[in-house]
Amino acid sequence: MTARMDQRFADLKAEGRPALVTYFMGGDPDYQTSLDIMKALPRAGADIIELGMPFSDPMADGPAIQMAGRRALDAGQTLSKTIDLARAFRETDQKTPIVLMGYYNPIYRYGVERFLDDALEAGIDGLIVVDLPPEMDDELCLPALAKDVNFIRLATPTTDAKRLPMVLRNTSGFVYYVSMNGITGSALPDPSGIGEAVTRIKQHTDLPVCVGFGVKTAEHARRIGMAADGVVVGTAIVNQIANTLDAQGRASADTVESVATLVRGLSTGVRTARLDAAE
Amino acid sequence: MNQLLKPNSFRAGPDEDGRFGIFGGRFVAETLMPLILDLQDHWTNAKTDPAFKQELDWLNTHYIGRPSPLYFAERMTAELGGAKIYFKRDELNHTGSHKINNCVGQILLAKRMGKTRIIAETGAGQHGVATATVAARFNLPCIVYMGATDIERQAPNVFRMKLLGAEVRPVTSGNGTLKDAMNEALRDWVTNVDSTYYLIGTAAGPHPYPEMVRDFQSVIGRETREQMQEREGRLPDMLVAAVGGGSNAIGLFHPFLDDPTVQIVGVEAGGKGLDTNEHCASLTAGAPGVLHGNRTYLLQDRDGQIEEGHSISAGLDYPGIGPEHSWLKDSGRVDYVAITDREALEAFQFLTRVEGIIPALEPSHALAEVMKRAPKMDKDQIIIMNLCGRGDKDVFTAAKALGVEL
Question: Is A254 a catalytic residue?
Answer without folding.
Answer: no
